[in-house]
Design brief:
Sulfotransferase, EC 2.8.2.-, transferase, cytoplasm, Rossmann fold, P-loop_NTPase, 12 helices
Length: 249
């Protein structure tokens, strides 16, 4: 069976009038063997200037991206929360092998035996690359704590002027709460044979520090030792938790 999830026919049958995020900003690294999955083909259809998403490590980024001096925004998240988030994503992601138990998955994550390789190598290589290429390196925890500040950074990097009204709209629509219920980004438009929300939702918690609900003391001590050795080679600093704002009632 071949799905074209961006076709008018699919959107009509599924009573969908929005344009999925995968169409607005295709994954450059996506190739699922079906029409909706070829990120490169969708990217070629989109007019310039294009917005491209990717999880690829430095070595697999097309040379043209560097040669054309494309501006890049790299969003990094603390490794412990990434491991937990990645585990739940692989639970729902039927395009990947089952992740096994949390204990098994954490070992694979530490050794880089997961899609897109080692978290440590990934963040370190992109961090170093910003010394020679226009890359805005952002932290997930900063974005959660002060979205206005981080959005302003992005606007300056892209040389865009945002009115206060537009800034407030962006903050509102990109909040986790809004995105979780937004079919443009929460993957609920995908068939369960691809992403199964009964196993875990794509937009799950969106907090910093959830790793504390999964890591045992022994796992945390082992991870910290490896983390310290890997990250000490750089000036990178990650916060493993932040003080979450009190929700408005």
């Amino acid at each position: 069976m071949c799905y074209d999830l961006f076709s008018p026919e699919y959107l009509l049958v599924n009573k969908t009038s929005y344009i999925p995020a995968l169409m607005e900003s295709p994954f450059q690294c996506m190739c699922l063997g079906m029409k909706m999955g070829r990120g490169i083909e969708q990217l070629e259809k989109n007019p310039s200037p294009r917005l491209v998403k990717t999880h690829l490590p430095i070595d697999l980024i097309p040379k043209s991206f560097w040669e054309n001096n494309c501006k890049m925004i790299y969003l990094a998240r603390n490794a412990k929360d990434v491991a937990v988030s990645y585990y739940h994503f692989d639970l729902m992601n039927n395009l990947q092998p089952l992740p096994g138990s949390w204990e098994e998955y954490l070992e694979k994550f530490i050794t880089g035996n997961v899609a897109f390789g080692s978290w440590f190598n990934h963040v370190k290589s992109w961090w170093k690359k910003k010394e020679e290429h226009p890359i805005l390196f952002l932290h997930y925890e900063d974005m959660k704590e002060n979205p206005k500040q981080e959005i302003k950074k992005i606007a300056r990097f892209l040389e865009k002027n945002l009115s206060d009204e537009m800034l407030d709209k962006i903050i509102h629509h990109t909040s986790f709460e809004m995105m979780k219920d937004n079919p443009l980004v929460n993957y609920t438009h995908l068939p369960s044979m691809l992403m199964d929300p009964s196993k875990s939702s794509f937009m799950r918690k969106g907090i910093a520090g959830d790793w504390k609900n999964y890591f045992t003391v022994a796992q945390n001590e082992k991870f910290d030792a490896i983390y310290k050795k890997e990250i000490s080679e750089t000036e990178l600093q990650f916060r493993m938790e932040i003080k979450e704002p009190i929700p408005k009632i």
